[in-house]
Design brief:
Elements: E1 2-5, E2 13-15, H1 19-46, H2 52-61, H3 69-94, H4 100-119, H5 126-133, H6 146-159, H7 161-166, H8 169-200, H9 205-237, E3 239-243, E4 246-250
Parallel strand pairs: 1-3
Antiparallel strand pairs: 1-2, 3-4
Helix pairs in contact: 1-2, 1-3, 1-9, 3-4, 3-9, 8-9
Length: 252
């Protein structure tokens, strides 16, 4: 529970953060964006890509494109996750708890992920990696950035093994679910899409379906992660009281 009030006031005003409401709101926004993306792309195909207005709407709403509304939403939820991780790191540091650095690194990592979501930095690895792997018949490695991604995921998994085991069982379980959704979509679907794009390209319904499911699962993974962080933050913070000019923490 968060309380905000004047330092001279006897009673502070409680402000409640509804975890379920935040999660449902983010989930509904994600569903709306995904459905809008599907609808506008199907409309574009049905009209034979002949409408300039519809084509501009595709650029604005397609979840697989950059610098548009879905990208903005995905960037914001990653930034939100980064902020929550930073808050946890701050509280852990105040409590002199273990793994403060791990939480801080996670916060920085999600900040970079938000930057990458906005500007697709990882795609700049595709051409250099293709030059190493070979330019043709790459199959599942057509989107060659997945190779360094696998290495990074493996390294982080090993580095965070003890950290993960230190978490409460329910939090650890939902972290795994969120990670499986996000990584499975971001990397796993890229492998499937790589085979398809190398042979058939992107201008077809199957690719649209694969790319849409990938982006939807990524959003779902981040939203599940955000909900888990909110629950964990509430668990470790107890009852917080904020006043103008001072900060105090009360125990439950």
């Amino acid at each position: 529970m968060l309380r905000v009030g004047d330092a001279d006031q006897v009673n502070a005003v409680p402000v409640f953060i509804n975890t379920d409401r935040i999660t449902k709101t983010l989930g509904m926004m994600a569903v709306l964006l995904v459905l809008s993306s599907i609808a506008i792309q199907l409309t574009d195909q049905a009209t034979g890509y002949s409408s300039v207005v519809i084509h501009k709407m595709v650029k604005l709403l397609n979840v697989d494109l950059e610098l548009n509304i879905p990208t903005f939403f995905s960037t914001l939820i990653l930034l939100f996750a980064s902020l929550l991780l930073a808050a946890i790191a701050f509280l852990k540091d105040k409590q002199k708890a273990s793994y403060v650095l791990h939480w801080g690194v996670l916060s920085t990592g999600f900040l970079f992920m938000a930057f990458d979501e906005a500007f697709s930095v990882h795609e700049r690895l595709i051409e250099p990696m293709r030059a190493i792997l070979g330019e043709e018949n790459l199959g599942i490695l057509y989107f060659a950035w997945v190779v360094p991604a696998f290495v990074l995921i493996l390294a982080l998994s090993l580095a965070y093994l003890k950290f993960g085991m230190s978490l409460p069982a329910n939090i650890r379980c939902w972290f795994i679910v969120a990670g499986a959704l996000y990584v499975g979509a971001a990397v796993g679907f890229e492998l499937i899409e790589g085979i398809h794009v190398e042979i058939y390209g992107k201008e077809n319904l199957l690719y649209i379906a694969l790319a849409t499911v990938e982006e939807a699962l990524e959003m779902a993974g981040v939203i599940v992660f955000i909900r888990t962080l909110l629950v964990y933050l509430a668990d470790i913070s107890g009852k917080l009281e904020f006043r103008f000019g001072q900060f105090s923490k009360e125990t439950k």
